[in-house]
Amino acid sequence: MKIPTTISIALLAACMACSGPVEKEYFVTDVTSTPVDFGEEVIIGNPKSMSRNGDLLVIDDSKADSVFLAIDIARNKYIGQFGRKGSGPGEFGRITIISSGDDGFIISEPLDNRATAVKINPQKQTVSYEPIFQAETSFWYLEKLANGNYITSEGYVDYPELFKIISPEGKVMVLTGDRQMPDNVRRLPNVVGTAAYQFAPYLSPDRKKVLALGSGEAAGFYRLDADTVALISQFFNPAADADHNFSDKEYMGQSGKVPMGFVTAAASDDAVYILNSEFSIYDCLKDGEENIDYVTGKVIFVYDWDGKKIGELHTDRRLRHITAPDAEGRMYALTEDDCDPMVVVLEIPEIK
User: Fold this and answer.
1) What is the pLDDT of residues 149-189, one digit of tens each?
2) How far apart are the first and last CA of the chain?
3) d(CA 171, CA 224)
4) What tens digit of pLDDT does each residue of 115-127 get?
5) How does 290-308 read in b/e, with b if 16+ C-beta sit within 10 Å?
6) Global pTM?
7) Strands 91-92 and 84-85
8) Which helix (H) or strand (E) covers residue 129, if one does?
């Protein structure tokens, strides 16, 4: 007996619905890094952080004559240094953190509770600065949300929440988020527990999604929700947790014998890229000298924004800082693997 076409289509649709959505296949991909030729030597001393906004790449370098190095990656051109070191007007202190802003970058100075917006004109090779705020509160990793507020996460604080949300005027609006800690640590004074369990926020380009990244294997995935952020999912692997030492209700640091695990991350609107280190601090001590391999890695774990691990990227060099892939699949990274610090580019396959 022949089944009418309309019924056939209905039955087929019903069968497809019963089967559910097709699971994405977990991928493991080898990627090769290529040094970027900027037409001149870019001398990088000690790159503390790196941020990309559009075609501009900025490196926070503690050993440079100025604080920051700017690179035009659209033209593969080194723009130069900016940000005078010092304590006077228009100068930046010894602790700074760079992140991307609306159409430029944000310089955070945690010691002064000060944030500054930076705009770079690559054609004219000019830099302009505009104060954002002198906050009424301390902050560490500062990122700007899509609603105009700012989000930060700190350690050594007297509240247990993970995030502090700050208004454009520098006022504290919300404390929120689960700072993932073992129960025995939660029973300690907040300033002790938060010293041991610190997280850094990483935002999607649309600034509506936030990754909270901790060392070991701890991460939380959040989305913007009115004036706060709402948890999507989170995970904490006790087996990868550092062996923290607490004495007389004080944080005494860690032994350094547990692998670092997650060291840094970058995010696109579709995925999160987490650089993982298999080394511990103890592994990287030799003859009393310390190398930096414990804060570098050759494996990048890829997650979707629901917090599901969907794949791995295996690189040919140990990387220290990474950016999320752009529309052409280009990921920029800093490496010091058997070389002076340099910028490399990796071609990342499209995640389908």
Assistant:
1) 999 999 999 999 999 999 999 999 999 999 999 999 999 99
2) 41
3) 18
4) 999 999 999 889 9
5) eeebbbbbbbbbbbbbebe
6) 0.91
7) parallel
8) strand 126-134
